[in-house]
Specification:
heterodimer, A: about 375 residues, alpha/beta, elongated, disordered N terminus, B: mainly alpha, 2 domains, about 80% helix, globular, membrane (chain B)
């Protein structure tokens, strides 16, 4: 773990957290102590301007880029309402997990949940924040958004490189009304590790045994075929540019860039258009009651109207934090966000958590976050 | 009369003071020189240390396996090494002759009033951040290549014997060929402006005598200017090569970032620097992170080996010429 913390600190410092990293850093690490001190000193000098701003924040968080828009909206609204500052750094889900493990932030955030055993090992608690959806996007000449239908096994075979042409009989069979060109399919995926990828490949693993054994799931995987773009915006740019391309992005990116998303066949057998309603339907049909530490990946959710690749963002916090005041402030922030943040979330194409789930979360806090 | 011993005394103290100053100056520049070596070795060692988990687990196999599977914790550096070398090679293949042309034009051929502006433009090009080159590559170069150039390349050059496989492939526009092109544009200003500067240092008298003997402009540049400035020109080329090997951002935009081993220049690949930049922040296991740092060490080695081999080759060439 030592090296991980060391690196985490450097990354963090360059993001303007130099002050926090140095004052609250990680447990002493003998071998790297001197190197780390030097680096941190350097980082402090570099981060000089930011350091004071960062330490002025009442709550610091870091993690998934997926929730960055809503986190910044919530924190500005929260600051207006309570004059408390929340500083959220969008460094990716993996980074969020690393930062909270290192104890350099009050909360971390990740689009992939941590397993309950691992949470227990680090003394962490976990709960969902908002819900969104991952949508397949295509660039096929003449095809409008929402026109093309795909099902899970077919999507998996496209990403496995087994279905290579847009006029493949299997695609034609699902889309009898559409004029599909004899164009090569170019698969586009994330080049960086990503929570979006985690939810997408998790879904493919659920619907395709071959995907599960051959590729598996994770925030980064060994892609059997295709081209990698950096970030949601990278994938979106490539799909828009490459005729015959297919990729996957967060719903808001598809909408903002006016991209051609597809319909997907869900677990109940219906073809669903991605929308707030179908994400909400998936959230409502998910079995949160029996999910220990909310460990639940919402993909392939049951329910007539559920969007099959619905994703949840999770917040990670220490049960016994080193900085109790910061953790308490973070908890207050999320209490406020659940109560007052729904409209802002909807405006930004997220789906707020259902009320029953919020109640369950507050019960979970009462048990696990005693500050 | 008494002035002479006084003078000798003054000279004595002065010469000993000068000696002290000389010695301390020697020490100072010595330290500066050694500093480069020490920091080089320290950087290499710290990366070796960071990547020790990967090296211990995979051994030398790390260098020539093409696995890159974060799920199953299998890592090998072959694809990024290959991509780094190929893209840098393409870049140098284009950039060196073009830069030579630019430098020659600016010092020998161009009218006086044009030299200033063009020279300044070249230096300005060197100052453009690499991400701008990446965006230019993605949004301007890629569509042109994928619509007009690569379909032709695939159709006509893809069928050539032996070398055809380098040019056959889907005309996506992203890939090692494109990355090489963008890199060449990026390194041209470095090489060209160094070449221009050193070409200007050639004494006019040398060139004039060559002209007087009836040499053409080409002969003057090739037989007089180039031999006179050889080591500096090579230095400029190495500067460009170093940048081409380590360039990250621009390459990430147009390379395709796929961990697949492919001979085709039209297919996406990966480079060491792009892999590290893309995956480091989200590398979620010790082995993954360690493999990425190990990759950094490999980039170090690759750069070192490439530059050493290039130097040795040039030394051979020099010997053959007998200069």
């Amino acid at each position: 773990m030592s090296r991980a913390c060391h690196i985490a600190n450097i990354a963090l410092s360059s993001d303007g957290y130099g002050m926090r990293a140095s004052t609250r850093g990680v447990a002493p690490v003998s071998k790297f102590q001197s190197l780390r001190t030097t680096t941190l000193t350097l980082a402090l000098v570099l981060a000089g301007g930011f350091a004071s701003a960062a330490s002025a924040a009442d709550v610091t968080g870091a993690g998934a880029s997926f929730v960055y828009p809503i986190m910044s909206k919530w924190s500005s609204d929260y600051a207006a309402a309570t004059s408390k500052k929340v500083n959220y750094q969008s460094i990716g889900s993996g980074g969020g997990i690393a930062q909270i493990k290192a104890g350099t932030v009050d909360f971390g955030s990740s689009d992939a949940p941590m397993k309950p055993e691992e949470l227990a090992k680090f003394g962490l608690a976990q709960f969902p924040s908002v819900i969104g959806g991952v949508v397949p996007v295509v660039n096929v000449p003449g095809i409008q958004a929402g026109a093309m239908k795909l099902d899970g096994p077919l999507l998996a075979d496209i990403f496995l490189g087994k279905v290579t042409m847009w006029n493949d009989p299997r695609i034609v069979e699902l889309n009898s009304g559409l004029q599909l060109p004899a164009k090569k399919i170019t698969v586009l995926h994330r080049a960086d590790g990503s929570g979006t990828t985690f939810n997408f490949v998790n879904y493919l693993g659920k619907v395709s045994p071959e995907w599960k054994t051959k590729v598996g799931e994770g925030t980064a995987v060994k892609w059997p075929t295709g081209i990698g773009g950096k970030g949601n915006e990278g994938v979106a740019a490539y799909v828009k540019q490459i005729a015959g391309g297919i990729g996957y992005v967060e719903m808001s990116y598809a909408l903002q860039n006016k991209m051609t998303y597809t319909r997907m066949k869900n677990a109940a057998g219906n073809f669903i258009v991605p929308s707030d309603d179908s994400f909400q339907a998936a959230a409502a049909s998910a079995d949160w009651k029996n999910a220990k530490d909310f460990y639940l990946v919402m993909t392939n959710a049951p329910g007539e109207k559920s969007w099959p690749i619905t994703a949840t963002n999770f917040i990670l916090m220490y049960k016994q934090p080193k900085n109790a005041a910061g953790a308490k402030n973070a908890k207050d922030f999320f209490t406020w966000a659940y109560a007052n943040g729904d409209a802002a979330a909807k405006n930004l194409d997220y789906v707020p958590l259902p009320d029953a789930l919020v109640q369950q979360i507050e019960g979970y806090w009462a048990q696990n976050l005693k500050y | 009369m008494s002035a002479i011993p006084l003078d000798i005394e003054a000279l004595d103290t002065r010469s000993s003071r000068d000696g002290r100053a000389d010695r301390s100056f020697k020490w100072l520049v010595g330290i500066a020189g050694v500093f480069v070596l020490v920091s080089l070795v320290a950087a290499a060692l710290s990366m070796l240390w960071g990547g020790r988990l990967a090296f211990e687990t995979f051994g030398f196999k790390f260098l020539w396996t093409d696995a890159w599977d974060p799920v199953n914790q299998q890592f090998g550096a072959l694809v990024p090494i290959y991509g780094t070398l190929v893209t840098a090679f393409i870049a140098m293949l284009i950039a060196v002759p073009v830069s030579f042309g630019i430098a020659m034009f600016l010092t020998e051929v161009a009218p006086k009033w044009l030299r200033g502006p063009v020279g300044a433009a070249i230096e300005l090009l060197a100052g453009i951040p690499s991400i701008i080159y990446g965006m230019w590559g993605l949004f301007v170069l890629v569509p042109v290549l994928s619509e007009h150039v690569y379909p032709w390349v695939d159709e006509h050059m893809g069928t050539w014997p032996f070398v055809g496989r380098f040019f056959a492939g889907p005309p996506i526009g992203l890939g090692m060929g494109t990355a090489g092109l963008v890199l060449s544009v990026m390194v041209i200003p470095f090489i060209a402006s160094v070449m221009r500067e050193v070409f200007l240092t050639v004494p006019g008298r040398l060139k004039e005598s060559a002209y007087a003997l009836g040499s053409t402009r080409w002969e003057v540049v090739w037989d007089v200017v180039l031999p006179y400035t050889r080591s500096a020109v090579i230095g400029g080329i190495f500067l460009g090569l170093g940048r081409a090997l380590g360039e990250t951002m621009a390459v990430t935009f147009v390379l395709g970032n796929a961990h697949e081993l492919t001979t085709s220049l039209l297919m996406p690949g990966n480079s060491i620097a792009a892999t590290i930049a893309n995956e480091f922040s989200e590398a979620d296991s010790e082995m993954y992170r360690s493999s990425l740092i190990a990759l950094g060490f490999v980039l170090f080695l690759v750069t070192f080996v490439v530059l050493t081999v290039a130097r040795l080759m040039l030394r051979q060439l020099k010997k053959r010429e007998g200069t």
